[in-house]
Amino acid sequence: MAETDQARPLAPVRIHPRSDDEEKALKTKNRRRKVKLCGCITAILLLLLVIVIVILVFTVFKVKDPKVTTNEIHLTNFGLNLVQLPTPQVKINMTMVVNMSIKNSNRASFKLGNSTTSVYYRGISVADAEIPPGLVIKARKTSGLNVTVDVMADRLASSPDLVRDVLQGEMIMNTYSVIPGRVKILFIKKHVEVKMNCTMTLNISTRGIQDMNCRRKVKL
Ligand SMILES: *[C@@H]1O[C@H](CO)[C@@H](O)[C@H](O)[C@H]1NC(C)=O
Ligand SMILES: *[C@@H]1O[C@H](CO)[C@@H](O)[C@H](O)[C@H]1NC(C)=O
Ligand SMILES: *[C@@H]1O[C@H](CO)[C@@H](O)[C@H](O)[C@H]1NC(C)=O
Ligand SMILES: *[C@@H]1O[C@H](CO)[C@@H](O)[C@H](O)[C@H]1NC(C)=O
Ligand SMILES: *[C@@H]1O[C@H](CO)[C@@H](O)[C@H](O)[C@H]1NC(C)=O
Ligand SMILES: *[C@@H]1O[C@H](CO)[C@@H](O)[C@H](O)[C@H]1NC(C)=O
Fold first, then answer.
1. What is the CA(40)–ligand 6 centre distance, in A?
2. Domain that includes residue 34, residue range
3. Residue 193: CB within 6 Å of ligand 5?
4. Which of 14, 46, 145, 212 could be stapled to 200 by a disulfide with Cβ–Cβ 3.0 to 4.6 Å?
5. Residue 118, domain member (yes or no)
6. CB 95 within 8 A of CB 117
7. Looking at 37, 60, 83, which one is the last position of a domain?
């Protein structure tokens, strides 16, 4: 009968202490494994950090433009002096109040810089008003802003169309507001500028503003 492998007696297991060299090799291997593990964890942490930064950039740190709305423009003072003879002449005094609201949808406050509102009549600048800087609109809040503009009679009178427009009962005018400001999110400052151009008709008989139409331009 042929001898099977199983039948062969097992070779005695040699137990002997590890040599120094073997121990060193094992330690190095362990260290390498540790270094690899550390590298992996660092890479994962870095990746997480990058993801968090990207998310923040597109959410919290994303600067949104403030929504400026012109609610109403009304006249608080209107004086008209029409002289027909010898040549027709018109003198108009008026004070305009531009009622605006500014909605700040950022998660940080919006601080207004030097803002201006100018009034134009047929392309001629007839009044300017400056809004003192420093108004701060808190995060996700809306603030009202009234701008009072005194229209100067002499500048209006320099227009050759004034007499005809007054006699016809309406004046088409424009208000043009430039509202700069900045949004500061932690260490990031972002400059924003809103320009608002409103065209309206001043009804001479009612002394009211009608057909107001505003256009907004934003520079982020
Ligand atoms: C314009 O206003 C001034 C001061 O309020 C006044 O003295 C003047 O008479 C007014 N002129 C007209 C045309 O209303
Ligand atoms: C506003 O204008 C004044 C004078 O023109 C200037 O000194 C000041 O720095 C300006 N402020 C801002 C916030 O731009
Ligand atoms: C703006 O004017 C309106 C009406 O005149 C007034 O009710 C409101 O309180 C004013 N808002 C500000 C911020 O001055
Ligand atoms: C004018 O602005 C104020 C806020 O400043 C607001 O309460 C009021 O309703 C506004 N008036 C009009 C007619 O929109
Ligand atoms: C001024 O307002 C009155 C009353 O609302 C209106 O009858 C008239 O047509 C208006 N005038 C103009 C030039 O729109
Ligand atoms: C405002 O809009 C009117 C009408 O669209 C235009 O004629 C005028 O030039 C504009 N004003 C400014 C300062 O852009």
1. 60
2. 19-60
3. no
4. 212
5. yes
6. no
7. 60
Query: pTM for the full model?
Result: 0.76
Counting ligand 1 atoms within 8 A of each CB, the residue from 81, 93, 95, 156 with the most, and so the one to mutate, is 93
The predicted pLDDT at position 138 comes to 93
The verdict on 184 and 166 lying in the same domain is: yes
CB of 23 closer than 6 angstroms to any ligand 4 atom: no
Q: What is the pLDDT of residues 115-155, one digit of tens each?
A: 999 999 998 999 999 988 889 999 999 999 999 999 988 88
Which residue's CA is minimally distant from atom 10 of ligand 6? Answer: 197
**Domain total in the chain:** 2
Residue 79 Cα to ligand 1 midpoint, Å, equals 7
Q: Nearest bound ligand to CA 92?
A: 1
Pocket perturbation via mutation, ligand 6, pick of 199, 211, 215, 216 by most ligand atoms within 8 A of CB: 199
Residue 42 pLDDT more than 60? yes
